[in-house]
Design goal:
The chain contains ten helices and five strands, in the order βαααααβαβααβαβα. The protein is α/β, with parallel strands linked by helices and about 190 residues long. It has two domains: about 5-15 and about 75-185, 3-Layer(aba) Sandwich (Rossmann fold); about 20-75. The chain has a five-stranded parallel β-sheet with strand order 3-2-1-4-5. The longest helix has 16 residues, at about 30-45. The relative contact order is 0.18.
């Protein structure tokens, strides 16, 4: 296949996971998933503000919301292996970032780590009011790239997002680590 674009997820691929890691550390797996399911979509679509999100998290954990935000920032570690891979791929492929994220937090991470220049386009849930795994977010990324699903590869660390993109005809790779990703890309002729 003649691939022309590679779409990367942010949390769990370019950066470490943040919110769910913090939630699991405070509440355990089951409760963390419930809380993420309740707050993630509305925060990522800006139906509530980031401030309201951290107030809710602070209330649940009985912690200062500002301290919760600081803890989340500390959990955000940029995957240098993925960054180096993106730099190599950028010479031959359109590189797109596709993420569910809250605006100030995401923009701060992008700015502090000088990441914007790595991507030809950045499609974020808070701008388009759609989240993965909703088909709309993938369609918008494709429309903006001007490419068909068959010309695109999508990389994400969550199974449900991979299934959703594959349902639209996008070749998708479940991210485990940088080394495995490089092997899978090589197998696709990348």
């Amino acid at each position: 296949m003649n691939y022309k674009a590679i779409i990367f997820d942010f949390y769990g691929v370019v950066s470490s996971e943040v919110g769910i890691v913090w939630l699991k550390s405070k509440f355990g797996d089951e409760k963390a998933k419930e809380i993420e399911k309740r707050y993630g979509p509305i925060a990522d679509k800006e139906e509530i503000t980031e401030e309201e999100l951290f107030e809710a998290m602070g209330k649940l954990a009985q912690e200062d919301p500002k301290e919760v935000r600081k803890a989340w920032l500390k959990l955000a570690v940029i995957n240098r292996g993925v960054i180096e891979l993106i730099k190599k791929l950028k010479a031959n492929y359109k590189i797109i970032l596709l993420s569910n994220a809250t605006r100030p937090f995401f923009e701060q991470l992008m700015e502090e780590n000088n990441l914007k220049k790595l991507f030809d386009d950045i499609v974020v849930s808070f701008e388009i009011k759609a989240i993965k795994p909703e088909p709309k977010i993938y369609r918008i990324a494709l429309e903006r790239s001007g490419l068909s699903p068959e010309e695109t590869i999508f990389i994400d660390d969550r199974e449900e997002n991979i299934k959703a993109s594959e349902a639209l005809g996008i070749k998708s790779i479940l991210f485990i680590d940088t080394e495995s990703l490089e092997i899978e890309l090589r197998e696709l002729g990348i």
